[in-house]
């Protein structure tokens, strides 16, 4: 049985595991999910920030690089309440490594206004607004700097875990 002091830290290790499974799925040309979840951005409003990464194909190098960066910096992602939404080939959507149902995926893609057949990244704040757009992959430190400059984040940082 795990004690309560250890339990909150376990969520940090769930991110790399889910992203590892996602990377495996993305490397396969036939990544089809049978247990897709329904998802809407309103579900995480005022709870999480969302990093949206959209790529034109499952083999997109920048998409895999961003997923790998997220895995390597899972503690910092957790400290910033940052979760990933990956959009592959303009139709397949993964949220936290889980496939999103087709209806939710279509709605999200339309809602975000992402360009077709281009790489794009969006940072969505806890209030649901788009805080930053990028047309190419950027280092996670740049994403963290944008988040760390937000007034809400400054008040949250006192509760950060030590990520060393």
Q: What does this entry show, briefly?
A:
The protein is α+β, with helices and mostly antiparallel strands and 164 residues long. It has helices at residues 7-27, 61-72, 74-79, 102-112, 140-148, 151-156, and strands at 49-55, 82-88, 92-95, 98-99, 120-124, 130-134. A hairpin with a 3-residue loop joins strand 2 and strand 3 (92-95).
Walkthrough of the structure:
- This protein is of the alpha+beta class and 164 residues long.
- The protein has one domain (10-158): Glutaredoxin.
- 40% of the residues lie in helices and 18% in strands.
- It has six helices and six strands; from the N terminus they run H-E-H-H-E-E-E-H-E-E-H-H.
- It has helices at residues 7-27, 61-72, 74-79, 102-112, 140-148, 151-156; strands at residues 49-55, 82-88, 92-95, 98-99, 120-124, 130-134.
- The protein has a six-stranded mixed sheet, with helices on both faces.
- Strand 3 (92-95) and strand 4 (98-99) form a beta hairpin.
- Helix 1 packs antiparallel against helix 2 (61-72).
- The protein is globular.
- The two termini are 26 Å apart.
- The model is unreliable at 1-33 (pLDDT under 50).
Task: Give the second-level CATH assignment, the architecture.
Answer: 3-Layer(aba) Sandwich
CATH topology: Glutaredoxin
Distance between the termini: 26 Å
Which CATH class is shown? Alpha Beta
Shape annotation: globular
Number of DSSP strands?
Answer: 6
Count of domain modules: 1
Quaternary structure type: single chain
Figure out the total of helices: 6
- Which homologous superfamily in CATH is the superfamily? Glutaredoxin
Q: Specify the structural class.
A: alpha+beta
Radius of gyration: 15 Å
Helix content: 25-40%
What is the arithmetic mean of pLDDT?
A: 79
H and E string:
HEHHEEEHEEHH
In which order are the strands of the major sheet placed? 4-3-2-1-5-6
Largest sheet: 6 strands, mixed
* Percentage of residues in strands: 15-25%
Which consecutive residue ranges, at least 5 long each, have pLDDT under 50?
1-33
